[in-house]
Amino acid sequence: MEERPETELISIPATPRASTPEAQTPSGQRSPRPAAASSGAGGGGKAPSAAWTPTSFISPRFLSPIGTPMKRVLVNMKGYLEEVGHLTKLNPQDAWLPITESRNGNAHYAAFHNLNAGVGFQALLLPVAFAFLGWSWGILSLTIAYCWQLYTLWILVQLHEAVPGKRYNRYVELAQAAFGEKLGLWLAVFPTVYLSAGTATALILIGGETMKLFFQIVCGPLCSSNPLTTVEWYLVFTSLCIVLSQLPNLNSIAGLSLVGAVTAITYCTMVWVLSVSQERPPTILYEPLSLPSFNASVFSVMNALGIVAFAFRGHNLVLEIQATMPSTFKHPAHVPMWKGAKVAYFFIAMCLFPVAIGGFWAYGNQVRILNALYRFHSRDIPRGLLAMTFLLVVFNCLSSFQIYSMPVFDSFEASYTSRTNRPCSIWVRSGFRVFYGFVNFFIGVALPFLSSLAGLLGGLTLPVTFAYPCFMWVLIKKPTKYSFNWYFNWILGWLGIAFSLAFSIGGIWSMVNSGLKLKFFKPN
């Protein structure tokens, strides 16, 4: 019988780039697969030329002697396996933890979470930095920081599935893969926990103070003779945060992240539009603030640059957000994640740049934009509009508290499940979150100036955003030594470390020596 030429065979599309798949657990949750060990081919122990996948054996050469019906069955099976991914052993603990419990995320959820994490009260501190940097250096530093962090964001999205069969679901896991178990833990745990817990504490302070101002505006002269103190407002805000924190996992707070994103965009827009639409105060100046000595000026500039760095937070949550998405060979998780991140950071730019430029144009070195807005224009702006602005700040702080606290909740529950080998009950989970909320409350009461330390916070946590991702790319992806890619990432990484040290020193010096209090509000 005449043999059919190879050109008549049905062509099977090549398997796309390997990406870690998902499978359904008996409980209905999704969990990542551990990487399968590669074995040698035959008896020689040599590694195969290409990584094995569940569809490797379904090739045109394998199908050539098989009839058409069987060929269709195998082709359909190949498509199914490409859709569901590897058939490897599950890690049951991941199905019990808040970050990896649900993998139903999509590009919309990624946009909501990134926008909620990436813009907030820190945007309103940017005019403070411009007061020390001036127009030119302020705009230049903000632009460079934005482009730099957008590049490191792309790196983190790509490294989430850098190793086939393995998903790095948390920032600490990726740091350990790049720097080693112990060094990665030491380098990543402190700044990420500091970002999560420190931001949560600052949100309690800002949210409580804003609720007090909202109450004063709405109530006016009709307020009772014994209004709540600032600390009592902190307690009210903390209680609201604890109630909302009972949502079980990261995907379940997507609605809250949407609320946080919408409120952040709205109040940032309202603040700068209301500021530039009113007549400017006659005493404002646009020259950088002059200080008595050269050293004082240098350290104040470093502190101001730390404020700019602090404006771009949220990279400690990128891998966690991407971990909420399903991933298969045909539909890897980095595709919807990057789509959502691009949309989110477009809106973040539309918030940060107008607030920084418009706020500085309207008030100059008066620095605190909301205080300046309230002090200079409280009689010109309708009281209802001013109250709405403050109420939107409260809603945004409530939403941001949830997403920044989720990695801490995940750590609590990971410690519990690893010891007991069972998932957290509702009561245990609730207990962890109530405990965490009140710990942040007591820290905020003990350190009420924490929201003033934007420059110091920016310096201490800068490596998470600007330095570590560059090092991770070189150590995991291993670009050609001495190539442009190799030099570019090493230089960016070490520049980030140097800036971190300089900004931290500037923040400490400004706090201790000059007594600079970058308070978001000044409660009565």
Structure in words:
By secondary structure, the protein is mostly helical. The protein has a single domain (102-514), classed as Hydantoin permease. It is built from 16 helices and two strands. It has helices at 60-63, 68-84, 107-118, 126-159, 171-179, 181-219, 230-244, 254-277, 294-311, 318-322, 334-363, 369-377, 383-420, 426-446, 454-477, 484-512; strands at residues 23-24, 30-31. A two-stranded antiparallel sheet has the order 1-2. Helix 6 (181-219) packs across helix 7. The longest helix has 39 residues, at 181-219. Residues 1-58, 84-90 and 514-524 have low confidence and may be disordered.
Q: N- to C-terminal separation?
A: 97 Å
Classified by CATH, the class is: Mainly Alpha
Mean pLDDT: 79
Number of domains: 1
Order of strands in the sheet with most strands: 1-2
Structural class: mainly alpha
Q: What is the helix content?
A: 55-70%
Number of strands: 2
Named at the architecture level, the CATH assignment is: Orthogonal Bundle
Shape annotation:
globular
Order of H and E elements = EEHHHHHHHHHHHHHHHH
Low-confidence stretches: 1-58, 84-90, 514-524
Strand content: under 5%
The helix tally amounts to 16
Rg over C-alpha atoms, rounded to the nearest angstrom: 26 Å
**Largest β sheet strand count, sense and barrel closure:** 2 strands, antiparallel
CATH fold assignment: Hydantoin permease
Subcellular location: Membrane
Main location: membrane
Pfam families: Aa_trans
InterPro entries: AA_transpt_TM
